[in-house]
Design a protein that fits this description.
The complex is a heterodimer. Chain A is α+β, with helices and mostly antiparallel strands. Helix content of chain A is about 25%, strand content about 35%. Chain A has 13 helices and 33 strands. Chain B is of the alpha/beta class. The chains are: A alpha+beta, B alpha/beta.
């Protein structure tokens, strides 16, 4: 790697909504600068996880260093710091933005600005990043760059007269983007002489080298073999390996202020080198850490139980391993009368929860039952003690409670105006409080509501998408706790309360949720040889009930022409279904039933 | 030791049209074509001949049963049937007293055809009646009407058919328990030797699947169809029919020998589009369209009559045996179950069946496992819930396979 003066470094990230072409653009930049040859180019180089490629979103961010000879004849180093594109990871986004001096704001020239993009642009503006608007996909027939340009100006107030018209797919506008990065994004401050401070913006666990830490040097210089201290965790390490991401790892001897790189130092778990922590030297340490460090705090909780009880130990080991690379994941053992032994797990949000579940099932080959997600409720007991309750079944009895508070979020949605009514209705149904509505350019509207997080972590996102035919987007952030009339809704199957099906609901919704839930369970639980009553109750008061009629027959009418294979498959499927059920008393309950509360229409 | 096949199934896929409940491999000819006039049928018979000729002979004794199923085999011309039988006889031999069955649909043949088929060697006829009122026939997309049934039955009586069966379907749209009872009475009044009573299954990709949701109007509820099943069992038993299989009833000596081969999990040859065969423990399913079947026959000839399917493993044989044998009133012989079980499997199976024995669905003849002579299901309770019993066996055996 060539030595580069601070004045010739540009650090930037890309802000874009899912599907607006961020990954494709990143690929083009890597190709145009010769960082990655066409031959090496897997489609969308920066998205490493299978899951990311399948879903077309970036979950874990990555970085890439590019060498670029600008039209002024000088050689520049451009560091792209990619950001995750999902609300669950907004803290990570904020850390990577802080590591940059500029950002490309990529907006689909036919779709316009979306809620998440907007939130990230504001974050970038707060951190004084130079923002370069790029209108992407201008080659598509529906592209209206003029309208979108106007929209960005109206919504964000950003001057878009110089917005670059691009098509990452066709390679249009790529040179202009590179030149703009060089001319518009300021170089990092030259603070090479100061004591080392480097910001961790990502880390991952490698089973051979320990944690690999991605960082941006803010001040000073970091060299191989340096003894470093992580200012928040207080841990000290010797740097074994130091390098840059090009985008594959290439070792170097030192990195100075303004540069972006990685190091390995036999760190055992990512929680020892968390995103946002400041790296300094043990000798000559910085006086103050970089601002803004926060520990990831789980917001959504659920129970994870192995389908077959003998997988409990395997699940424990898998969670331990995942935790090495995912500091935000929390878990502790949980025992349920319905499900047996498992773990109560905490996640940053619903997507994070889904990712962890999928990784456990795919990478560790576990068969899991997940209970419906819950949030953290704050319960004040009559003794004045404040408890944090993340599992509905552990909610103290009404007579022991003084009050219950629940987390609230501010939810910002951007939608074409024809869906405003449908989305307002959705928010009302979810106990939302209307805050504001603003007309943006060209028939688009932003809607702001405050609503309980518990209402968002159920199927809110899916509902929002379906009610807006996919056009609306959303962003939310926590705004605090509020007291509400909440109660625990118990579900009784054949007279037995099922702890894993308990939920915390608002008094006004108890009847509706109870009714919908027992109806859904009636659909999901197969008939047995006896009639099964299903009840929803608050305390001893039954608010809704249904019953599953007894099974009258279960027989294959015909095994025709000796073709038994299809009938056999049916029986195999039935056998498999039985295997994936949990026995609640004498009733076999399928896995989906434990997520039923999410599927209430 | 692997038994030699003594049975052959021949699939004749042609139909006038596709009935609304049907998901069998068929090929529709329309209202005007049949074997005598259709080049498609003629060339299909040629393909069948090629497959028969290419199939290695595994039996020492001649075939005891032959079954022409469909589709609608009564769309064959008499010479076409003769050709196929001659090819089978030449290749494998057909015993003089063999049961040679043919499925026939009312409205697709006349007396002359019937006489021709019998002269060609047919000894048993299965008549696809399905229902005995026109509204129901129309609602399930059948080509024939009740008057065609009466013509067909008249001819069967006219030729003094010594062994014939009648098919009915229960659980059809709008059918009530009373309708069903009326239909059963009318059917019995036709004096069939054998009845097949099939409870409607709404198969995916059928007209019924598009129109109806199982258990919802206008289909009868499970309660109603279970009652229909019990009604048929009581009524037909009282009329002297033996409920010898989940869906089949016969007067003494009139059980379908060919179908017993399947239910006893014995080997059989299979020929034609969509047909399956079970020889040398290999289960082979043939492609389900004319074109793909033709290709398959070419490949089969080129492979020298060798099938590439793997032989069925022992535990799978056990599952097949249970799934098929428990359909029969006679059940499964104790020795036969034991021969397919090692000690672990035996214990697993016993444990899986235990609750169902307690419940009276599964019956151990010989009273204990140690002295087990036959294992069978009770009628009608055990039959009605046979999938519950079987899926528990499947689950237990699959757990065993995994561990």
């Amino acid at each position: 790697m060539t030595e580069v003066p601070v004045s010739q470094i540009r650090n930037f990230s890309i802000i874009a909504h899912i599907d607006h072409g961020k990954s494709t653009l990143a690929d083009r930049l890597l190709q145009r600068t010769g960082t990655v040859s066409d031959r090496e180019m897997k489609a969308q180089f920066l998205d490493n996880m299978d899951l990311e490629r399948e879903r077309g979103i970036t979950i874990k961010l990555q970085a890439a260093r590019m060498n670029y000879k600008a039209r002024d004849g000088k050689d520049y180093v451009l560091n792209l710091i990619d950001t995750p594109g999902h609300v669950d990871f907004s803290y990570e986004v904020s850390r990577s933005l802080i590591a940059c001096e500029g950002a490309l704001l990529v907006v689909d020239a036919s779709q316009g600005v979306e809620a998440q993009t907007l939130a990230n642009v504001y974050l970038a503006l707060e951190n004084n990043l130079e923002i370069i608007p790029v209108l992407n996909k201008i080659d598509l027939p529906g592209a209206e760059p003029e309208r979108i340009r106007q929209e960005i100006e109206d919504i964000i107030g950003l001057d878009c007269s110089g917005a670059i018209l691009a098509s990452a797919k066709q390679g249009i506008g790529i040179d202009e983007i590179l030149e703009s990065i060089v001319y518009l994004v300021p170089p990092p401050a030259d603070t090479v002489d100061q004591p080392l401070r480097a910001l961790i913006f990502d880390s991952y666990y490698d089973s051979y080298r320990g944690v690999i830490v991605y960082f941006r040097v803010m001040d000073g210089t970091l060299r191989r073999k340096d003894k470093v201290r992580l200012m928040a965790s207080g841990k000290e390490y010797e740097v074994d390996e130091l390098g840059v991401l090009a985008p594959t790892q290439i070792e170097v001897d030192e990195l100075h202020a303004g540069e972006v790189g990685y190091f390995a130092a036999s760190i055992k778990a990512v929680e020892d080198a968390r995103v946002g922590d400041t790296i300094t030297l043990v000798q000559n340490p910085a006086k103050e850490a970089l601002p803004g460090y926060a520990e990831a705090k789980p917001m959504v909780f659920c129970g994870l139980f192995p389908t077959v009880s003998d997988q409990f130990e395997e699940l424990r080991e898998a969670l331990e391993k995942l935790r090495l690379s995912d500091a935000a994941l929390q878990y502790e053992p949980e025992t349920s009368s319905a499900m047996g032994f498992g773990f109560r797990c905490g996640f940053l949000g619903l997507l994070h929860m889904e990712i962890v579940q999928e990784r456990l099932e795919r990478e560790y080959n576990l068969d899991l039952i997940t209970t419906a997600p819950s949030v953290i409720y704050r319960v004040t007991t009559i003794q004045g003690e404040v408890l944090e309750i993340d599992n509905p079944s552990t909610l103290p009895d009404p007579q022991a409670r003084e009050k219950i508070e629940e987390p609230y979020v501010q939810l910002d949605m951007i939608t074409p105006e024809e869906y405003v009514g449908a989305l307002m209705e959705l928010c009302q149904n979810r106990r939302g409080e209307f805050k504001d509505m603003r007309y943006l350019a060209q028939g688009r509207t932003t809607l702001i509501y405050e609503l309980p997080l518990a209402e968002v972590v159920t199927d809110f996102f899916d509902q929002m998408k379906s009610r807006s035919k996919g056009y609306a987007s959303m962003e939310y952030h926590l705004i605090g706790y509020r007291e509400n009339h909440l109660s625990r809704l118990d579900i009784l199957i054949n007279g037995d309360p099922v702890d894993s099906l308990a939920s915390i609901v608002h008094r006004d919704k108890a009847y509706y949720v109870g009714k919908a839930l027992v109806e859904k369970l009636k659909e999901l639980i197969p008939r047995h040889q006896f009639k099964i009553p299903i009840q929803a109750a608050i305390g001893s008061r039954v608010v809704a009930s249904e019953s599953i009629p007894a099974l009258r027959k279960d027989v294959l009418a015909k095994c025709y022409g000796g073709d038994i294979s299809r009938k056999k498959k049916l029986l195999q499927k039935q056998a498999k279904g039985k295997k994936r059920m949990k026995a609640v008393g004498t009733v076999d309950v399928p896995q989906e039933a434990f997520m039923a509360v999410l599927k209430l229409s | 030791m692997i038994a030699n096949p003594a049975s052959a199934y021949i699939h004749i896929p042609f139909c006038r049209r596709r009935c609304f409940y049907c998901d069998f491999p068929i090929s529709v000819l329309g209202n005007h074509q049949r074997g005598e006039t259709s080049g498609t049928v003629e060339s299909y018979v040629d393909r069948l001949g090629e497959e028969i000729a290419a199939t290695p002979k595994l039996n020492q004794s001649p075939l005891q049963t032959v079954f022409f199923g469909g589709g609608t085999p009564s769309l064959l011309s008499v010479p076409q049937l003769e050709t196929i039988l001659a090819q089978l006889d030449q290749r494998f031999g057909i015993a003089p007293a063999a049961e040679i069955s043919m499925e026939m649909d009312p409205g697709t043949f006349d007396l002359e055809h019937l006489q021709g088929y019998l002269a060609a060697g047919i000894t048993r006829i299965s008549l696809g009646v399905q229902a005995l009122d026109d509204a129901t026939l129309e609602s399930c997309g059948r080509y024939h009407r009740v008057v065609d049934v009466y013509h067909a039955v008249d001819w069967l009586h006219q030729v003094a058919m010594p062994n014939w069966s009648l098919d009915l379907i229960s659980g059809l749209p709008h059918q009530t328990l009373t309708d069903w009872e009326t239909g059963l009475s009318k059917a019995v009044a036709l004096y069939p030797h054998h009845l097949s009573i099939y409870d409607l299954t709404v198969e995916p990709q059928t007209v019924f699947a598009k129109r109806y949701q199982p258990g919802d109007q206008p289909l009868p509820t499970d309660e109603q169809t279970a009652a229909m099943y019990r009604l048929a069992q009581a009524f037909l038993s009282a009329q002297g029919y033996d409920h010898y299989e989940v869906s089949n009833y016969a007067q003494p000596g009139h059980q379908c020998q060919h179908n017993l081969t399947y239910w006893r999990n014995q080997p059989y040859y299979g020929f034609g589009l969509g047909a399956t065969s079970y020889t040398q423990l290999q289960r082979v399913s043939r492609p389900r369209t004319l074109a793909t079947y033709s290709e398959w026959v070419k490949g089969f000839q080129a492979a020298g009559g060798i099938h590439s399917e793997p032989p069925t493993p022992t535990l799978e044989q056990l599952l097949d045996r249970l799934m098929l044998g428990l359909r029969l009133k006679e059940g499964i012989g104790g020795d036969e179950v034991r021969s397919l079980c090692d000690p672990t499997t035996w214990t697993t199976l016993r444990a899986a069946l235990h609750p169902h024995i307690a419940q009276g669905w599964v019956i151990l003849e010989g009273d204990t496992w140690a002295t087990l002579q036959r294992l069978r299901l009770s009628d009608p309770e055990g039959f009605l819930f046979s999938n519950v019993v079987l899926s528990d066996c499947f689950r237990a055996i699959e757990d065993l396979q995994e561990s």
